[in-house]
Amino acid sequence: MKTIKFILTLLLTLMYVQLSYAQGDASRFSFEIAGGPSHAKQTLGDADLNFGGGFEAVFHYRVMPHAGVYAGWGWNKFSADQSFAGSNADFEETGYVFGLQFKHPLGLGSTLGFLRAGGLYNHIEIENRDGDIIEDTGHGFGLQIAGGVEIPVSGKWSITPGVKFNSLSRDLDDDSSQIRELTLRYQSLRIGFHRKF
Asked: Which residues pair with 162 in a beta bridge?
């Protein structure tokens, strides 16, 4: 009988601690959508890329008070006046993002700073001036690094200005016998909206 009382007391204490923690702490799940301009750091094949832009939609899960994981989907588009794919071609990088995130208060009210380091599983599509896909590299792994601030606006909503850097290298096996290595490295300014659940 003493063992049952001990186990019940222990379970009730653990439930109370868990409920107190859940009520007094920030939500574990959140969602963010962010977009903005992008600038390529080098040519893509022989293409001088113009300024581009894109967006990401990302889910976050906080594992510890200042650390968590994220995963989502992103799209970014650049154009080139002249390239191996012809004139006025568009280069779109699309696919999945995932990684680790660190958030910490900055001492400015409720504003948090965040750093992200993760990977990509993306591909590069090439479109002609009519918007038809003429080439596709297929998906492969790349790298993403990002940072910024999370500024509370109201309730569970925040604004998240930041910067990110993506790097993706893929081989393009076009109709010719030549395999072309494409390396897309770019930095982006992002403004996002973040919602906790």
From this structure: 148, 190
- 3-class DSSP string for the chain: CHHHHHHHHHHHHHHHHHHHHHHHCCCCEEEEEEEEEEEECCCECCECCCCEEEEEEEEEEEEECCEEEEEEEEEEEEEEEEECCEEEEEEEEEEEEEEEEEEEECCCCCCEEEEEEEEEEEEEEEECCCCCEEEECCCEEEEEEEEEEEEEEECCEEEEEEEEEEEEEEEEECCCCCEEEEEEEEEEEEEEEEEEC
What CA–CA distances, in Å, run from 49 to 40, 54, 89, 123, 143?
A: 6, 14, 10, 17, 20
pTM for the predicted model, two decimal places: 0.79
Tokens for 24? Answer: 């007094």
Q: What average pLDDT does this structure show over 82-91?
A: 86
Q: Residue 90 pairs with which residues in a beta bridge?
A: 79, 127
Q: Residues 152, 158: contact at Cβ < 8 Å?
A: yes
How far apart, in Å, are the Cα atoms of 111 and each of 18, 65, 73, 96, 140? 26, 15, 25, 28, 35
Each residue's pLDDT tens digit, 98-152: 999 999 998 878 899 999 999 999 999 999 888 888 888 999 999 999 999 999 9
